[in-house]
Amino acid sequence: MSTPHLMPTYARLPVSFVKGEGAWLTDTHGNRYLDALSGIAVCGLGHAHPAVQKAVCDQAGTLIHTSNLYGIPLQDALADQLCALSGMERVFFCNSGAEANEAAIKLARLYGHQRGVSQPTTVVMEKSFHGRTLATLTATGNRKVQAGFEPLVPGFVRVPYNDVAALENLSSNKEIVAVLVEPIQGEGGIQIPPVDYLQRVRTLCDQNEWLLMVDEVQAGIGRTGTWFGFQASGIQPDVVSLAKGLGNGVPVGACLAGGAATEVFGPGNHGSTFGGNPLAMAAAKATLDTIAAENLGARATALGDRIVAGFRAALEGCEQVSEIRGRGLMIGIELKSPCGTLVKQALDVGLLINVTADRVVRLLPPLILSDAEADEIVTRLAPLIRAFTPDV
User: In b/e form, how buried is each residue of 231-252, taking b as 16+ CB within 10 angstroms?
Assistant: First the structure.
């Protein structure tokens, strides 16, 4: 049982892990679990990956922190690498996805003020998730996580996800300066728009001189088969936010800027005490180098196709299943009823999953999964879904 001195902000499952290796975790009693969640899309290389382990240990023995008052060579190297992979021009390093999105929102507001807009407004989407700071909480399209934290931050207008017509209707609003959108909604239930959705949003942004800001916190770093989710649409954003899989478990986030956003931030406009410290930079660089060397983006596509096909075969005719969808290793199995009880049932058979948007079983396994482990996810979970009865 947890100490009473922890704030009770999490409804934790009755398990604690003490060791990880690859796609497996071991609890305090020696039980092993197949991790189909990766710390919520964080450990793309699995647990205790030797390249990340070596990078972190070597760097911890050399230099962990100096602050951004001084040059940090590893920041330069990682920024160059991220820009080469993404087509962006500038990088600000921080510590989390919420901070990366906070930086994006601040950048959009400064961009607006520099253009003479008195009340810069950002368009956000229903059912989105961007973080839990006050600004990112407001940007998030989930009333449940906003409740009790009013007054929310002004400067946002919301439209349905994957609804270009609704966005087009805002073209006359001269206060709008940016659109913030996920290439795939993760917390919203693995909602995957058609390929031309971001293309059409990009066109609208160009027509209205809006920044296109893409939240890649969950979809980025190879998880969906390309380095970034937006690349499947063949477009180039003005701002990209990253975190989660970037450091394979070491806290690191990044806000990337290009196009009209390239020169918006200057000295004093934003900052972070810990952001971009040498330890985080070493972990992130080792993560990117490994994904590139092992071509894990393509591997994510193959694994995702295998898992989705496996579930479609195993759950054919299952009346409780509405849809099975995925891109790479972002996979959702939507049921017709709230299915939160499946999380504990899966834990009982040694499998870590998640349920989001009440009715969607969300799978975010590591990119280093073997074929046998991919099949094992289906083997362990499909019978639970078939036997599922709606939550009371």
Answer: bbbebbbbbbbbbbbbbbbbbb
